[in-house]
Amino acid sequence: MTDAANTDRWIRWLNTVQLVLAGVLIMAPTVWMVLSSFKPSFEVTAYPPTLIFTPTLDNYVELTKTTPFLSYALNSLIVTVGSTALGLLFGIPAAFAVSWTRISWPAILTLAARMAPGTLFLLPWYVMFRQVGMIGSYTALILSHAVITLPIVIWVLLPSFDGIPRSVFEAAQVDGCSVTRILWRIALPLVASGVAVSAILAFVFSWNYFLFALVLSNGDTKTLIAAAFNFMGEGSTQWGALMAAATLIALPPLVLAALVQRWLVSGLTLGAVKG
Amino acid sequence: MSDAAATLTQDRQKLEMATLSAPAVIFTVAMIAFPVIYTIWLGFQTFSSTGKQSFAGLANYSKLISDYEFWHGLWITIALYVLSLVLQLVFGVWLALVLFHAKRLPGIVRSLFISPFMMPPVVAGMMWLVILDPSLGAANYILQSFGLPPSDWLASPTWVIPTVALIDSWQWTPYVALIVLGGLQSLPPSVYEAAQIDGASPFKTFQRITLPLLLPTIVTAAILRSVDLLRFFDIIYITTQGGPGNASNTLNIYGFRVGFEFFNIGYASALMLTLTAIVFGAVLAFNRLRGAVAW
User: Fold this and answer.
1) Which of A2, B29, B54, B233 could crosslink B33 through cysteines, CB 3.0-4.6 Å?
2) By three-state DSSP, how is residue A6 classified?
3) What does A100-153 look like in DSSP terms, one character per residue?
4) Coil, strand or helix at A89
5) Whether A208 contacts B171, CB under 8 Å
6) Domain A58-268 class?
7) Distance from A82 to chain B by nearest Cα, in Å?
8) Three-state secondary-structure class, residue A164
């Protein structure tokens, strides 16, 4: 065997070792969370920690018994689906118009809003929503979360709309199609996969968002994320239920992200990188 | 088609386009622009204990300059920002190179690599809170089994910021890696081939060729992370709420507490506007840097 081939094999081996190392560092905490959620309550806090145990669903049962987990989950679903729908409703036409006219300020406006710290809007929102008695309403929560979803939809869809050849639209125009008709009948079906990716990303980030629901929800409309404190319990005895809650909260975004992982990169960087 | 008819169609088209963007623009103005103007106005107001409101001029801002907690929060914010950004960029570039050389990665492996930053930061905080528990956590067990001293992690005023930076870096290093990976994949292979023919070592190739070509991508990743890191909130709020003491009281956490725990709306507005100025300042500075390293 030649020296070069030897070096080559050595480098490949070294790379595999690093890949496995990175994989372990990335996965271990999540695996630990899921394992802990299936541990019997006396074993969750065992020290030294145990890896081998008889799995049980006790923690999940206890979680649904001692906290209104399912109604929080329903709240999360209402707010997330509502804000994603609103983001798509406003974002799709805006992205199309920006792509067509090359007038980009509406897109930049929504992005700038996404870059400011949420607390900046939360203060006036709190004052204003309180004045109209909307604190704790689903409407207030959905509107606030749409601030998260709208720029995601616009910026994920922009490159998709840009990718459609202009001649397609020009031909339709010659046939006398109105702009609105071109959007819904011709352009939208062509960017269907982009719409799906933008909807899933909007869903994930709305589901994960913490700050707004922390202030704008009440006991009845609290989302899962804002209710996280309710699962913390007192002291370390509740670890099993806490990890069960954490696992269940993380499940929807992780499953959705796995579905679209191939298209995620360009979407997540708001088009800064073509993935 | 006559000229008049063409102009008519064009005007009609412009109107239709405006109608299409209108909902998004009106929504953003109503939800963001108007409230921000309201916040600016609130920043000039004081509210007495009875809820009475009066014009205060720049009082909130002069209070800011003499407020120890503000400067402390600024220092914590910057320390956490620099530490996290450096960790995520260094390990992100490393991970990107590893993934790049792994070539064909099955979809399921890719999903696992993106899983940290797809999960809610709040969940990451809950998870690490258990792992890093000073007396019963798995992290200290691992340290001790290697003969290293245990740490108090989030419960230690000295280590809380490095620990939070570590948690955030666990979550977002794979994100930086995916962006850099995108940059690596778009580099022309010819440059590597030329370097190989010239007999350059892999390290020299990276240092002299790959890294400079990657810089614009790395700066992009830095911008995207800066926006999140400077307004760091979720993980701290769920794990320490700014503690122990005020050791992790970032500007965003401090502003939130002033506003929603002490209900000092006027002063909180001044704090949040200052933080917003810092975030946009950082983004603009990085944008210039990106212009400078573009090729």
Assistant:
1) B29
2) helix
3) HH---HHHHHHHHHHHS-HHHHHHHHHHHHHHTT-TT-HHHHHHHHHHHHHHHH
4) helix
5) no
6) mainly alpha
7) 15
8) coil
Q: How far is CA A23 from the centre of its chain?
A: 22
| Residue B28: other Cβ atoms inside 10 A | 24
Q: Taking a C-beta distance cutoff of 8 angstroms, is the pair B44, B56 a contact?
A: yes
Q: Is B263 on the interface with A (CB under 8 A)?
A: no
Q: Which of B91, B167, B161 is nearest to B123 (CA)?
A: B167
- For residues A160 and A90, the model is more confident at A90
Q: How far apart are CA A200 and CA B114, in angstroms?
A: 15
CA dist A95 and A113 (Å) reads: 16
Question: Per-residue pLDDT tens for A134-181?
Answer: 999 999 999 999 999 999 999 889 888 988 888 888 888 888 788 888
Region A209-223: mean pLDDT is 92
* B273 neighbors A120 (Cβ within 8 angstroms): yes
What is the DSSP track for A219-269?
TTT--TTTTHHHHH-STTTTHHHHHHHHHHHHHHHHHHHHHHHHHHHHHHT
ipTM field: 0.89
Model confidence band, residue A275 (pLDDT cutoffs 50, 70, 90): very low
Give the separation between CA B238 and CA B256, rounded to whole angstroms.
13
C-beta of residue B235 within 8 angstroms of C-beta of residue B121:
yes
User: What share of chain A has pLDDT > 90, as a percent?
Assistant: 43
Q: Which residues in chain B have Cβ-Cβ distances shorter than 8 Å to A91?
A: 24
What is the rounded radius of gyration, in angstroms, for the C-alpha atoms of chain B?
25
When scoring A119, A154, A259 by the number of chain B Cβ atoms within 10 A, the one with the most, hence best to mutate, is A119
Name the CA dihedral angle for B3, B4, B5, B7, rounded to a multiple of 10 degrees: 90
Residue B171, chain A, CB below 8 Å: the answer is no
- CB contact at 8 A, A161 and A99: yes
For testing the chain A interface, which of B38, B126, B250 should be mutated: the one with the most A CBs within 10 Å? B126
CA distances from A246 to A31, A210, A215, B120, B128 (A): 12, 14, 21, 9, 11
Q: What's the rounded Cα separation, in Å, for the pair A135 and A126?
A: 7
Tell me the average pLDDT of chain A. Answer: 87
Domain coordinates of chain A in residue numbers?
3-37, 58-268
A-facing residues of B in 183-212 (CB < 8 A) are: 183, 186, 202
Span of A72-86, A245-259, B48-62, B92-106 with lowest mean pLDDT: B48-62
